[in-house]
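Example 4.3 (complexes with small molecules)
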Amino acid sequence: MSDPVADSRTRPADDWWRSAVVYQVYPRSFADADGDGTGDVNGIRARLPYLADLGVDAIWISPWYPSPLLDGGYDVADYRDINPEFGTLADADALIAEAHALGLRILIDLVPNHCSWEHPWFQAALKAGRGSAERDLFWFRDTKDGGPPTNWPAAFGGGAWQQIEDGQWYLHLFDISQPDWNWDNPKVIEEFDAILRFWFDRGVDGFRIDVADSMAKDPTLPDVPLHNGEPTREKYVGNPFYDQPGVHTIHQRWRAIADEYADTPQGARVFVAEAWLSPAERLAQYVRPDELQSAFNFDALRATWDAKDLREVIDHTTENLWAVGAPATWVLSNHDTIRHRTRYGRDKRDALEGAGVVPTDLQLGLRRARAAALLELALPGGAYIYQGDELGLPEVEDLPEDVLDDPTWERSGHTVRGRDGCRVPIPWSGTEPPFGFGPGTGQPWLPQPADWSGLTAESQAGDPDSHLSLYKAALRIRRDHPALGDGRLVWDADAPAGVLSFTREPGFRCVVNISDAPVTLPPHQEVLLASDQLADGVLPVDTTVWLAV
Ligand code: TEU
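Answer. The structure with 1-O-alpha-D-glucopyranosyl-D-fructose bound is encoded below.
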């Protein structure tokens, strides 16, 4: 039997996504060309040369559609246009063309589980009344036992049903402003077919699918079990709104549409699924040969900086994804999680929780973030870089309460601050805010820490030891080295405890020291790159080295 992963190395460039390094742009916070304090499409365009020079293969742009931005744009009011705050469709067309000219692919974000309450179809549904065709595009239901139709909780706090004036309730698994589409209605299915084609025809190379595991619901609407007296959002097998079998029919349909583009110059279009599903056996269902091509590996993001944890995640992921012929992906941070420099500077067990209340050593976090970058980029498959990862940005945990914008803050009754701390605008240049985020001195929509001047792209560009220079060097080697990207790894039997060491053919070895003492470097021809200074044939703690062997 042929080995699907090994075979892929000889397949045409159509399989670029199997080893792509994808850079996530959160448009509000990336770069502001018009100086209104909010990032925009022309800001991204101006920074395309930076991204090409960094050495990534593709850019994924978080939602840029018209939206009241009540969930940062994941509340879409029109799937076929650009938010006027961010620019115009003409700007988007120009961005796609300019990116392609620089050899960068463009992925955009599809949000199919819900829209914004400002979407015209939801507005029409509100007016049309119970039992109407308009309401059937969403989940409208009558009161049950004097309350909402089910006990389902919403993602950002509170229940998942909102009652309207005529007494009916509508379902919103996320914010109250994000009504869920009814994917049992053929009009919804056809609408999303048309949205995919709209953007594919404009030249986008693919989509990241938001909450790719939630579109299908159990139509009998059963309650979820209680945990500690509260209804759970846990993704247990059989959960009525997560990982229902119906999602796979939708993905197969989209895959067929993407494959229709196989004969265009760019080749077939691609998808990456956002589905926080564990274990990897479940995620693998989304990347079977006739479904989405890839999925974010959030087990890697969730793993603590611990050799045993990481090894388990790497093995489990690759075993399960390779079994269906899909590449693994590696993710350390995104716009929903505490930045990994901060997580890695904390006690292992607290990594993803407790913003602002956990003691954090940011120097240690930076050292580990460097080591993690070289681990991530050496592993087989694709890799994601969240904007600012390459600058070593920490989470901003002391944003004043009055600027917090994530719906989590309001919906949790001001008990959970939410995700704004990883969405602070990028520092590009200069010595004080706005650090070149926009022209002039106007301040960005979220304030930047005053002490970020050493983290700007400009200040790091000239420093060979900077975080940015490490990323650039790693991406350059990754691009040229035949062992890196898609393929296999073999664990080295001679690695001491607490050390991750693997070989990739031809002639590449990656060694990560997560033990509590320096270790001797294994025999090698040459050091290709190290995340920190190597002392005399020794690999210090929290350091990764790439070796030619
Ligand atoms: O996130 C889906 C998701 O599972 C997250 O909401 C996660 O539960 C939460 O961020 C934990 O803090 C996607 C987007 O990435 C996120 O930004 C959106 O808010 C969400 O979908 C709704 O569209």
